[in-house]
Amino acid sequence: MGLRQSFSNEYQTMMRRIYLWAGSLVVGCAIGYLVYQWLIGPQIYLEPVGTGTLVHTIVASGRVQSEHRINLGAQITGTVSKVLADEGQKVARGQLLLALDSAELSASVAQARAAQQLAASNVRMVQEVKAPLAKQALVQAEINVLSAQRAVVRAQALFAQGFYGGASNEDAQRALEIAQSQFSSAQHQWTSVQPGGSEAASAQAALVQAQAALQTQLARFRYSQILAPQAAVVMARNVEEGDGVVPGKVLMVLSPLGSTQLILLIDEKNLKWLRLGQRATASADAYPERKFAAHVAFIHSAVDAQRGAIEVRLDVSEPVDLLKQDMTVSVDIEVARRPQAVLLAQTAIHDFDSVAPWALVVRDGKAVRQSLRLGLVSQGKVQVLPGLQAGEMVVPTAQTGVREGGRIRQALP
């Protein structure tokens, strides 16, 4: 019994030693593995530094609007006799949109035209009838004066010879005076019917006055016909046949064709990027698959203080049939482009919004802190100016356990 008991104790002692040795070996291996892992660094996924073209865009929404709207109204009081255009209809320049009752105006035009024709006839009468008659009367008066002058000479000679008495000599002198008076009157008549003369000028003035009266009546008649001032779309129609209208009442509202603009409100923090002429791609929310081109045409000089935004207007480069007034549109304005830029994911940059951003770059297997100077930002990619080179690997900011100077191993995807 004593020998067996001694053997049992020795066996237990030996097993305890084996267990102790095995435990120490396991702990040593674990410590060695941890030390090895510490020495070679953790295995993590890294962000590569790449190159490419970076396009910076400003995304905004807005509405469609023509450059201006045209409010059409009547210039005279009247009654609508015809309405020839409806809402949504496209109309051409000069197209008749609505007409007022023009019976009285037509009569006034006819009366004025007749007065103008009468005045024109008077001008022709002066030129074609009165002027030739005045010329003939002047010639006849001149002949009468010459004849009376010869009669006076004869009468004076005969009176001197005693053949005529004093009465006959006086009769010849009176006849000469009458002939001279008639000649003077004929001269005045001839002068008055010549261009610039009083009668010719009076007839011409009467013609001008009649023509002006006719133009006035024609203008009033044209007021009864409301035409489209340019190609447009009828946005609103506020009148029906039989309605009475007065000056100042808006009867139709037109939106001109070919002058479509996109009106946007853009956050003022993007003001530094905006320039006239910048290209943009837009789409109507109703037709998102239909893209069309536009460009920046106007940047407002003042910021809306309540909304912290600035109004920007874009001209649509080519006419787009699907656009309607006040439609909602989405716009991407290309404000900058950098070809062959050094690019890094924004998720790998520490203190991105600060004045001193930085990144942990893997160099010689260690995490090295690198200060950065950033450029454009677009769709999660950032242009890195001096600081990094294409092909380098950067620790993402999500890897919080990585310390500066620590060893890093790249995990394969």
Radius of gyration: 53 Å
H-E string: HEEEEEEEHHHEEEEEEEEEEEEEEE
Overall pLDDT level: 82
Beta-strand residue fraction: 25-35%
| Low-confidence runs | 33-40
Tally of DSSP β-strands: 22
Give a description of the structure.
The protein is 37% helix and 34% strand. The chain has 413 residues and is of the alpha+beta class. It folds into four domains: 1-40; 43-54 and 340-410, conserved putative lor/sdh protein from methanococcus maripaludis s2 fold (Beta Barrel), CATH 2.40.420; 70-101 and 224-255, OB fold (Dihydrolipoamide Acetyltransferase, E2P) (Beta Barrel), CATH 2.40.50.100; 103-223. Strand 14 and strand 15 (309-316) form a beta hairpin. The protein starts with a helix and ends with a strand. The model is unreliable at 33-40 (pLDDT under 50).
